[in-house]
Specification:
Catalytic activity: L-histidinol phosphate + 2-oxoglutarate = 3-(imidazol-4-yl)-2-oxopropyl phosphate + L-glutamate
Number of helices: 12
Strand order of the largest sheet: 2-8-7-6-5-3-4
Number of domains: 2
Order of helices and strands: EHHEHEHEHEHEHEEHHHEEHEEEH
CATH class of the largest domain: Alpha Beta
Shape: globular
Strand content: 15-25%
Modified residues (N6-(pyridoxal phosphate)lysine): 222
Structural class: alpha/beta
Pfam family, one: Aminotran_1_2
Region (Disordered): 1-43
CATH architecture of the largest domain: 3-Layer(aba) Sandwich
Bound molecules: pyridoxal-5'-phosphate
Family: Belongs to the class-II pyridoxal-phosphate-dependent aminotransferase family. Histidinol-phosphate aminotransferase subfamily.
Helix content: 25-40%
CATH superfamily of the largest domain: Type I PLP-dependent aspartate aminotransferase-like (Major domain)
Number of strands: 13
């Protein structure tokens, strides 16, 4: 009887497996963290300066709509600031999109190796997640379209995708959009846009401008400001209005707004990040390919390395860990037991990882 008198969460909540973040070392330890796709070069010095500049203004509420940040984003990316909503990380915005556009009996479609937050937020909204097999390690547009039913309300697409690093070309994303009913929201999560070098990629802004059912979501987390928690989205005015109705009234804190605006304008730093990442992404991909390992071609700031089997992946994980290099296991959370996801880090870290893995797989 006492059981019946306990507060009960909504149906579906207890079926959710909590998000598993990348492992960290003990505070103050010398380990190198390559497990959460953070920036290989830290944060923009201008963003750090902006963050510090308000250390003595923490008693006053921030401006609630993140106007300063939206204006910087609008200026640099050529977007109307009125069509931007900022969030406490892009997870904040993804949650709000799910809450606003999904409910009991609805379905959201995503690809098999898509970002593991999508099932959580879909189920939290009372809806069902429909997983579509990848074509290799890349989202399969025909499969996604075939999975749409009258109950479908959202299609979640990370582009490039985490944890595979693969991407859909602009033409493929457009083909996906063209095949969707107009009442289905296509959420393009461009979390790794800053790192893409492929010429046939589009961040999604053109499609947002042309269509009434496309939203693009971005984050500052992968470009040096993960701790500040800043995300943003651009969408049709109607969707922006809906999200603004229910978001936290002060969902982005003042130091984050200022750091985000400074980072946005520091296009030189963003270019440095991109160049560093491309160089060491090429390096690790070339060095590890062959040697009984396969590196899935990546457009992001990490690579998915596939080993001969799950035991080799586990051994590689432990060996790197012992040498102070923490990478990300993708067995339980993503169903890729023979893989490890490795963030692109410093030159020293990348040379270290390559040396250790080459020696290890030779022995094995
Ligand atoms: C990291 C990541 C996010 C979340 O970013 P935050 O802004 O830190 O919440 C969203 N989508 C994808 C695909 C990611 O990899």
């Amino acid at each position: 009887m006492s059981d019946d008198l306990r507060p009960k969460p909504q149906p579906g909540i207890l079926d959710i497996s909590p998000y598993v973040p990348g492992k960290s070392g003990a505070p103050g330890s010398k380990v190198v963290k390559l497990s959460s796709n953070e920036s290989p070069l830290g944060a923009s010095p201008k963003a750090i300066e902006a963050f510090r500049s308000v250390a003595d203004r923490l008693d006053i509420y921030p401006e609630g709509s993140s106007k300063i940040l939206r204006e910087a984003l609008g200026e640099v990316h050529g977007i109307d600031p009125e069509l931007i909503v900022c969030g406490n990380g892009s997870d904040d915005l993804l949650h709000l999109l799910a809450q606003c556009y999904l409910g009991d009996g609805d379905e959201a479609v995503m690809s098999q190796y898509g970002f593991s937050v999508y099932p959580i937020i879909t189920k939290a909204a009372g809806a069902a997640i429909v997983m579509v097999d990848d074509d290799g390690y890349t989202a399969d547009v025909d499969g996604l379209l075939a999975a749409v039913t009258p109950k479908t309300k959202i299609v979640w697409l990370a582009n490039p995708n985490n944890p595979t690093g693969t991407y859909l070309t602009d033409a493929e994303v457009r083909r996906l959009h063209a095949g969707l009913r107009k009442d289905i929201l296509l959420v393009i999560d461009s979390a790794y846009a800053e790192y893409v070098t492929a010429a046939d990629y589009s961040v999604g802004l053109d499609l947002v401008a042309e269509a009434s059912n496309v939203v693009m979501v971005r984050t500052f987390s992968k470009m040096g400001l993960a701790a500040a928690r800043i995300g943003w989205m651009v969408g049709p005015a109607e969707v922006v209005d809906v999200i603004n109705r229910i978001r936290g009234p002060f969902n982005v804190n003042l130091p984050a707004q200022l750091a985000g605006a400074a980072a946005t304008r520091d296009v030189e730093f963003t270019a440095q990040l991109k160049a560093h990442n491309a160089k060491w992404r090429d390096y690790i991909t070339e060095e590890l390919t062959g040697n009984h390992m396969h590196v899935v071609p990546s457009q992001a700031n990490f690579v998915l390395v596939l080993f001969p089997d799950a035991d080799h992946a586990a051994l590689a994980f432990e060996t790197l860990m012992q040498r102070g290099l923490i990478v990300r296991e993708v067995g339980k959370s993503y169903g890729i037991p023979d893989g490890l996801r490795i963030s692109i880090g410093s030159e020293q870290a990348m040379i270290g990882v390559v040396g250790i893995l080459k020696a290890l797989v030779k022995i094995a």
